[in-house]
Amino acid sequence: MSTKSGRKVVWGHLILLAAIVGVVVAYLLDARSVSLRTNNLLLVQPAAFLAIVLAAFVLPGIFPRADAAEEVEATGETWGDLIRVFILIVALAGLAFSLEVIGFDIATFAFMVVALAVCGEKRWWVNLLFSALFTVFLIYGYGTITPFPFPLTIL
Amino acid sequence: MTSTFSRRTILKASAGGVAFAALASPSILRAQNAYPDRPINVVVPFDTGGYNDRLARAFAPFLQQQLGQPLTIINRGGAGALLGHTFFLQQPDDGYTILCTSAAPYLPLNILTQDASFKLEDFYMVNLPSQDYTLMATSAGSDIKSVQDFISRLKADPSSLSVGLQPASADLVNFHILCSANEIEVDAVRVVTYDGGGPARNAVAGGVVDVGFVGGEGFLPLAEQIRPLLTFDTRKRDNWDGAIVTDVLGADADFVVGSQRGWGLHGSMQTSNPEVFKTLVGAIEAASKDPAAIEALKNQQLATDWYGPEESNQMLARTAKVMEQYLDLLKGN
Amino acid sequence: MVELTSVSGAFTLLSSDMNAWLYLLPGLAIGLIFGAMPGISITMAMAFALPATLYMDFLPAIVFLTAIYTGAGFGGSVPAVLMGIPGTSSAVATTFDGYPMARKGQHSEALGVALASSVIGCLASYVILFVLIVPISGVVLKLGPLEMFAVAVWGMLLLGSLAGTHMSRGLLAGTFGVLLGTVGMNTAGFVRGTMGIPWLLDGVPQIPAMMGLLAASQLIGLINTTYLIADEASRKISFKKILGGVQHTFRYPTIIFRGSLIGVIVGAIPGVGSSISNLLSYSETKRNASDGDTFGQGNPKGVIAAEAANSSSEGGAMATMLALGIPGGGATAILLAAFAMHNIVGGPSFIANNKDIVYAVIFSNFAQAMLLFVVGLGFVYVAGYVVRVPLRFLIPSVLVVSTFGAYAIEGSSAGPITLWVFSVLGWAMVRYGYPVAATVVGLLLGSLLEGNLLRTNQISGGDFIGYGLERPWALLIFALMLGSILLQAISKRRRAKVAALSAAQ
């Protein structure tokens, strides 16, 4: 995570800041391409410039001195922990994008099983039972009060 | 307000309950092939609480009486009804999904300005009972007394008055028509854009803007706080004072009608499921003419007039055509 | 302002139909349960119940629906405290201190504080409404874009105090939020930043984005923790502590009063309402508190400020609805529909002709607030058990519930997808010291800010100052805002002086 000089690079922070600035710039360009009228840019343009200026102020925080304690990545975190976080994020993405495609029942159950395992439930039968019960409970619970039906495959 | 612990309430509630149970009873009890043998979805492409939502919910009990199956209201709001309209067309045209929408201006707007994946003919309007119109109004205490007053002031100085309206609306088109007919420099008028009819009307009633061009039906609850100046229709509507458009622009006045709201089906159903199609059209007609429905909806300031499919579709097509002429205006500045 | 004949008429009306009161309890219970489910809005709860009122008489129908309104208003605070999920935008500020309190093992107290300040706020708002309904309604319609812009700017002041240790990161997070809040079609009809996705035309879905930023991001970060509350002994849910929280609330009458006043006034403005009032109240309380630095770390005053304001907004919204016949939001639109179903049409004449009904509604809301206290105590006691569920069950369950809620409120995968994007963003932001709350505030205020700035520009023809001088209410709001900032600076200096003096001694 660190370079050999007196300064380190906090890569994760760099990616985050690049993403924020990237979104801001892309948004500004898109807005300008729609129209240059005041009615379009009155707030968006100054706010985007402000965001870019602020990002420049944040930049030094990404390259802290090697001895600065403040900017170290979260302590005591192992690669294993980080991988579990990423599995959870990917599983949540799977849930969000597949709900309407494969049905709420299957998607929810699958997510529950994976997420429970990632979060540390080691007894497989507890996992399956809880996931199944919770899925059924949620689908009927939310299903009765939302003003439209959930797409389902099995239930 | 009855003063007893009323038996009537209980009777009514239980009658309602029995009726509901009968309607919701399993389809096994009914002949399998007779349409409809399961609940029918009503797609409302707007959020709960708006005109179409209220119309659908108020009309549903009467329509389900005709169809013998419960109706489920599905709100799919967003993107100027584009999402709801697209969702509706994606459902099978088997008569188990029907539509309650502001066909005009939203269908033409979706098609003309939002690159919608559908055409007008994909929808078949059974009845469009609610025929809104643009009302030009000012606050009750305003010193603008008439349309002529408005015109002469703007002619003298186009920036002397502020005008509240919604972008990409029939009201905007009507405002432009009125200005160009009177040689008012429209770009110099202080036009204030609002996100919805409600906020625009509130601004008119509160005198925040000098004049507003907004859908007239929504002005009814605010009647005491505004002064109507001009109704964009060939006849007087809702007993508003002030002029009608033909008084100002002549007998062959060019103008755009407002929202046309009501009931629609898949256009393709006419050929794919003609029997079901006939049943549905018949049921909507019968429910629209049901005196109980007419009274219930009237109380909620909702429309039930029966125009029928032929006239409804013609009205919609006509509106779409006029809107096409003003494409540049609708597409934005 | 209060007419005694109408008041006695209201009592006659209320006592005439005793079965109206039977609907109070189920109404509150339905409201609480619906409100506590993330993504189920008050409007949905009321729309769900509306058909049932068709078979009721007028008074029971209105009592039932307003009870749901009241119940759902508080229901949203329960997940906000226990899991940091703002199920509705009116509970955003509740999460700022409520959730940290829960993490510290003070969940019982936090829930007690939230319940008590909601009940008192609700009561206070109806007292204010009782006296001020006519004057309030006279002002509401006259509020123009500059006034609304002033309110939005006032809300933005909160960004400064949310920033925390890294001021530039805080402001960047807030500005980023504002920009995201303006995505989609703006008030003048220009479409920006939608990337061709139709559902972005209406902007970034707010509630899923908030749930992602504030809640899901936290949960993802908790994956290596076994329980929400580290200390096992603190995990107990105790009735005594809930009541202790209730009692604690009474020590801050100023905060409650300020919150209620902000809530009523902001709640009365159509289209603004409780989602802004809780932020304003929180921001003002934090700025004026001697221990303002501890806000955000579990200071009960923050919960009191937020809850007093969001529950009293209900009274404000009712004032606008009753006096003008204008629905400020979805919930009051449904109430108006219910009025109409019984041949009663809202509007200025309504209040003149039906004063007894207006006062009856107000009185029945007094009763609702009282009963909410009792029902709410039981409800939070049961809900509190959530903290005893091991996180390995809680994290997946809450993520799924949030996903369902996001779907329910948007009606399509747009909700869950937004939730996901913003939970990843939020997780990364928290990791690198950016205050996610600032982004949420920006997101909530973005379109309000832009729309009203634009309209001010349109209406004034670009002459902001000339126009501003014609708008006394806007000047008043700006003056109040400046006064509040100055006052804070002065009292801060005084406190610093006192601290320096005591240190020297």
From TrEMBL, chain A:
All residue ranges annotated as the DUF1468 domain in the record: 18-141
Coiled coil: none
Transmembrane segments: 12-29, 41-63, 83-112, 124-143
One Pfam family it belongs to: TctB
Keywords: Membrane, Transmembrane, Transmembrane helix
Protein name: DUF1468 domain-containing protein
TrEMBL record, chain B:
Span of the signal peptide: 1-24
Ranges in a coiled coil: none
Identification of the protein by name: Tripartite-type tricarboxylate transporter receptor subunit TctC
The keyword Signal is annotated on this UniProt entry: yes
SUPFAM superfamilies per the UniProt record, alphabetical: Periplasmic binding protein-like II
Keyword Isomerase set for record: no
Gene3D superfamilies in the record: Bordetella uptake gene, domain 1 (3.40.190.150), Periplasmic binding protein-like II (3.40.190.10)
The entry's keywords: Receptor, Signal
Family designation: Belongs to the UPF0065 (bug) family.
Cited Pfam families: TctC (PF03401)
TrEMBL record, chain C:
A Pfam family reported for this protein in Swiss-Prot or TrEMBL: TctA
Cell cycle is among the record's keywords: no
Keywords assigned by UniProt, alphabetized: Membrane, Transmembrane, Transmembrane helix
Domain DUF112, residue spans: 22-440
Taxonomy, superkingdom: Bacteria
InterPro entries: DUF112_TM
TM segment ranges: 20-42, 54-74, 111-134, 146-164, 171-191, 211-230, 250-272, 321-345, 357-383, 421-445, 473-490
Protein known as: Tricarboxylic transport membrane protein
Species name: Pseudorhizobium tarimense
